[in-house]
Amino acid sequence: MRTIIIRSFVFLVVCIFACGAPFVITAGSAAEKEPIKLGHVYVMSGGAAMYGKNSAAATQIAIDEINKAGGVLGRPLEVIFRDTKMSPDVGVREAKNLVLNEKVFMLTGSLSSGVALAISAYAKEQKILYFNSMAHTPKLTNEEGHRYFFRWSTNSTTQHKSGALAAAKHWGHKKVVIVAPDYEYGKSFQRIFWKFYPQYVPGAKTVSEIWIPLGTKDFTPYITKLMGLDTELVASALYGGMQLAFGKQAKPFGLYDKFHFYGASDADTYALYPMKPGDPGSKGSLSTDRYPSWMGINAKSDAFVKKFREKTGRIPEFGSACQYISMHALADAIEEAGSLDTEKIIVALEGKVFDTLLGKIEMRACDHQFQTPLWIGIMGHTPDYQNLHITQRDKFDNPYVNYDTCEEVMALRKK
Amino acid sequence: MPIETLIRQTMSGLSMGMVIFMIAVGLCLIFGTVRVLNMAHGSMYMVGAFLCYWFNNVLFQHFTGSFWVVAIVAPLLVALVGLAVEMLLFRHIYSRDMIYQLILTFGVVLLIGDLCKIIWGVEYHLVSYPRFLDGAVNFLGITFPTYNIFLIITGVLVFVGLWVLMQHTRVGRIIRAITYDRDMVNALGVNVRRTYTVIFVLSCWLAGLGGVLTAPINVITLGIDAEILIECFIIVVIGGLGSMAGAFVGSIIFGLVNSFGILIAPRLAIGFSFLLMAFILIIRPWGLMGKPE
To answer: Quick one: which of A254, A336, A390, B101 could link to A377 by a disulfide (CB 3.0–4.6 Å)?
Structure first.
């Protein structure tokens, strides 16, 4: 009798499980749609940590929006964040770990051109997508460009060619001093700016080149040297913290009153945000702002700035804006490709015009350079915005998107 | 060379020299007397700079004259941090190998760096020039910022103050005696342990003072601790371990080499400080005013 009861009980339990199991199994898999993993490699420590953190925040904002709208191909996106420490060795090591161990689908990130070139070479070898929204060396899309790499920000060519044209149109000075940080970015500034400026201002001469070592904090000797030079225009490639310190130290000398100043990366809003109205700085200088978020470019930009400020308490810089755009573009491209086939996604991206927070912009097919605009104008104060910023913008945007042409790019690749 | 250029570069060299002197002199003191390789010296400087930003721009932004209050209060706070670090950590490693000091102080660097990141974030911070020192003065045909002249004067005052302390006070005499012969001082009944604490706290106070006073001409952000440390060590080595006068003279030479060097051989700018250090170590291995050991 007991045996029958026990056996019946066991039979009953098994039946219940057998009936319930299908529900459990499907419910489980529906809840655990395997996420598509992305690897974000950026500098997250040290003096440049702000850029990495900003990019991470922008990426997360984009990912959250995409996931809220149902994800990509029904699957959520997930980002793994790693610190490159601004070192190519560390960057490639992290990239390898992300690809081989974490099995990420694609890589994104890197402020430093050196790190970006190293990771790009790795991505090419692995045939894996690599997006960059900040590194400026033209090499990434020119000589070292390849099928799997996409750049979403401006590059040095357009930045400095546009600057040369703007400085020529605005003042047309013949005597020029170049001030640049003594590394690849500074050197490419001098190379590109001086390639085009004498074309626009015939007879222009470099009176002096002032190369400032990276990590210089006390610019006083350089400023006094500048004050003694016979020049009309000072063309400077100092940016971020360097530009802030230089501007602070130079203002009491009257440097900005004595000469006309062109700053290649001067006006980037995020860097000037710490200044208070009336703080010394490069007022009256011609400067480039790669993401004038305060301008109210369009509704998408305002929405992004608002979310970014809520998340971080900071103003987003152009790297973050381009990173945000690139993540949405990736999601759209995957949906259009209908699968995670990298080749199909590349086809979906090439030549596509995206409607973004910077406007309607094309991802150029020949070299995967997003045709991002930039804004140039004279720095000043206006009542509506607290910081020094570019005013008198003078239509310095669309005609000034001076990227290398496809023919020029292909010629460079052939060499 | 036109006379204005000579004057300009001399002034900027002096300014640069006095700026680095004010920050490095604390390290000179601690390294020279107690022989502790204090990597955290740059961190104390950074905390001083951050405190200057915090008080001026955040806590007391509506008080004019807040800068001068900060200049007094912030170095004292940094000295307190130094006291805590010394009592809890450093005093246990004085007698140990230098490698232990290196590792411990490096750990403190990372700790303080991350605490600064948590409290003040990763972005850039700026401090305005104090009102009466804003602007420039014209003399001998050149324009030179008032604040830089203030820094030159302050650097000299710091040196004079320390010299008086070392030569004419009991504490100073004890510190100098410890440099020569620590065991004898101990045998004479002086509390060497407590003097070490005093030296350490004083060195942190100096670092904090350097951080506060140089804040208006700098950008305050993460990473400034590491950047300043190398220059500090160079000054200490050039000047001679433990010699305050050596650090003072060495800083002036450092500033002038940089300011005239960029006129004569600008592409070597990245190497000026190291070339100077190498040159001095070759002709005088114990530094400008150090004692041969």
So the answer is: A390
Cβ neighbours of B266 in A, within 8 Å: 209-211
- Domain assignment present for A52: yes
pTM for this prediction: 0.82
Is A276 in the same domain as A357? no
Same domain for A365 and A330: yes
Judge: B2–A228 Cβ closer than 8 Å, yes or no. yes
User: What residues of chain B, 155 to 214, have a C-beta less than 8 Å from chain A?
Assistant: none
Residue among A43, A183, A209, A224 with most chain B CBs within 10 A, to mutate: A224
Strands A233-236 and A353-356, by their bridges, are unpaired
CATH of the domain at A272: 3.40.50.2300
- B241 near A CB under 8 A: no
Q: What is the pLDDT along chain B (293 residues), one digit of tens a residue?
A: 888 899 999 999 999 999 999 999 999 998 878 777 788 999 999 999 999 999 988 888 777 778 888 999 999 999 999 999 999 988 888 778 888 888 999 999 999 999 999 999 888 888 888 888 988 999 888 899 999 999 999 999 999 999 999 999 998 999 888 877 888 888 998 888 889 899 999 999 999 999 999 999 999 999 899 889 999 999 999 998 778 899 999 999 999 999 999 998 888 888 998 999 999 999 998 888 877 76
Report how far residue B233's alpha carbon sits from residue B217's, in angstroms, rounded to the nearest whole number.
21
Which residues in chain B have Cβ-Cβ distances shorter than 8 Å to A225? 8-9, 259, 262-263
* DSSP letters for A327-368: HHHHHHHHHHHTS--HHHHHHHHTTPEEEETTEEEEB-TTT-
Nearest-Cα residue of chain A relative to residue B19: A218
Instruction: For residues A45 and A59, state if they share a domain.
Output: yes
Half-sphere CA count of A353, side-chain side, radius 13 A: 3
Question: With contacts defined as CB-CB under 8 Å, which chain A residues touch B145?
Answer: 249, 252-253
- Residue A23 counted as domain residue: no
Nearest CA in chain A to B144: A253
Q: Are residues A212 and A243 in the same domain?
A: yes
Determine, yes or no, domain membership for A341.
Answer: yes
A380 & A268 share domain? yes
DSSP A61-106: HHHHHHHHTT-BTTB-EEEEEEE-TT-HHHHHHHHHHHHHTS--SE
Residues of A with CB below 8 A from B219's CB?
217, 241, 244-245, 248
Residue tagged 């050991």 (tokens): B293
Give the total number of structural domains in chain A. 2
Contact A222 B136 (CB under 8 A): no
**How far is it, in rounded angstroms, from Cα A205 to Cα A197?**
10
Cβ count near B125 (within 10 Å): 21
The first and second tokens of residue A61, run together, are: 């904002």
Residues A315 and A282 both lie in one domain? no
Please report which helix (H) or strand (E) contains residue A256, including its range: helix A255-258
Determine, for residues A215 and B218 on separate chains, whether the beta-carbon distance falls below 8 Å. no
Interface of B with A in 26-45 (CB under 8 A): none
Flag if A248 and B219 touch (Cβ within 8 Å): yes
Chain B residues touching residue A223 (CB < 8 angstroms):
12
Is A356 in the same domain as A380?
A: no
Residue A280 in domain: yes
Same domain assignment for residues A391 and A243: yes
Contacts of A273 in chain B (CB under 8 A): 123
